[in-house]
# Entry
Amino acid sequence: MRIRLVALIAVVSALLVGCSLFTAAPASEDTSPTSAYPMTVVDDMGREVVVESEPARIVSLAPSNTEILFALGLGDKVVGVTNFCNYPPEVEGIDKIGDSFNVNIEAVVALDPDLVLGIDSHTEVADRLAELGIATYLLAPQSIEDTAKAIERVGVITGVPERGREVAEDMRQSLEAVAERLEGIEDRPRVLVLVDPAELWAVGPGTFLDEMIRIAGGENVAADIGQQYAQLSEEAVVARDPEVIILTWPAADQIRAREAFAGLSAVVNDRIYVVDGDTTSRPGPRLIEGLKEIVRAVHPDVELP
Amino acid sequence: MHLEVRRRRWRLTLGLMAALLLGISVAATGLGTVPVPVGEVLRAIGDAVVSGVNRQDTNSVIVVMLRLPRIALGSLVGASLALAGATLQGLFRNPMADPYIVGISSGASLGATIAMALALRFSLLGLGAVPVFAFVGALGSLAVVYNIAREGPRLPVVPLLLSGVAVGAFLQAIVSFIMLMSDEKLRSIFLWLMGGLAGSTWTDVRAVLPYFLLGSGVLLWQANNLNVILLGDEQALYLGVEVDQVKRWALAAASLITAAAVSVSGLIGFVGLVVPHMVRLIVGPDHRVLLPASALGGAIILVLADTVARTALAPTEIPVGIITAITGGPFFIYLLRRYRRARSI
# Structure
């Protein structure tokens, strides 16, 4: 009896091994060259990263990266996100690894990831994780086109290159469609974007919002502040007399309540708009949504696709 | 009390404190975002000693490469700060003295802030730009303060304190200005200034250890001379102690271990101020026992505080400097009130 059982198990396992050998062989033939692992790639910070196999457990160190991974259809492979990640709603139930600025390396290691996706501020975290043998790829897109390219590259290293190209191409086409609607418009209103209306922190050059204002046919009155964000005095705002004020925080009343601002064109003509701070700043697929919000604020009469 | 009896009691106290530090360290190694049972901790350490760390074994990586270096560094930093604090309180005969009083903290802050604001990336003996700049900044500001304060071969205490405060305020203003100008780096600079042990590595431990051994060796050698200085400069001279020589040795050693500690952990407050007072209540003011006991006490307190910092809001970390200040502040007030009643410190 026992001998027969052992023989049965032996036969069954031999068959199983045989089957898996047979099924494995044809699969390796149709593997396209772009998804050949191990894959050596260079990330946006110039670091060489070796991805050993198609990632099955991915940790995201920034909300933008989380959005990219979900847009690529990899949501079920994301095993760790930050406390800041709030989109899509499915991130709610995923383990947290601290926040973007304060990554808990121990929590990352405990999730046993085969790929960690960070941003430019994570160079030290990435070095540390690399020491521990965890592939960490950093993204640092500076423009909407950069973001599309970054999405393509993430698609390649995560084994979904076609999906990456699709998402990126979709972004480019939407961007072009928006730009077409704005062709021939001469009027370039002076725009001020404040990320902190209480302290008058303005958005300067080198930001997605600055790029969006330009695409939307506006002129960023804080283009001369020389850094991405800087605090303006009330005087400086009055001197620039913005025709449109865009806030990433619902606090239009705070702007209207300032006596010094009573005469500003934007206040007089009631052109203070509140936009979503996430879609206008996170380098991910939703940047186009953010761009449309900015266009609606700068040129409300333009009909968007 | 007979010296031999006292010495025996000192040895007992120090032995108990060392045992406490060991016990707390083992317990702390098991605690964290992912709890690891003590048996598993010991197994991971054993495996690592025998055959190195297996990168595939998550518990081993967490225990041996993430938590142990952090606890070792926490012990070294806590010990350095408390030892330096105890020394400087004696040297200045001032209970408010702490390791940062001669401008080391602001010099280190400026160095670290510059490295972070410019996003410098280089590596010296495995250390990044931030610790290297912080260390250079700390010793640089000390040199400036020392040269302002000294009068020929003499090193008067009050000018040393005052120039420390003045140079500190000046450097701090530059740090604030750089922070204002530095956009997205602001947060990392702020976190560094709060002090923390997140991301500690064995490289950091190896970098700090030689300074700690050298500095604490010098201080223990000078411990009895520091006792004599407590009597006053004049008395000390009558007793044949080269006061200025002792001051220079003690100041140099205390500053060196502080600079090394600060460069890898940022500005962790209150350990260097409060721990020596706590220890003085237990073992008394004799530097021969106060100094080693302060070092052990500082290590115990910082490992405890860092365990809270790692676990209280896990997975988010709290900079350990916030924990030490929140618990150290009220404790210091308690000591002050007690001092007012008993005049015993």
Q: What stands out?
A: Chain B has one domain: 3-342. Chain B touches chain A at residues 32-34, 55, 58, 61-62, 65-67, 121, 128, 181, 183-184, 187-188, 191, 198-199, 201, 310, 314-317 (CB under 8 Å).
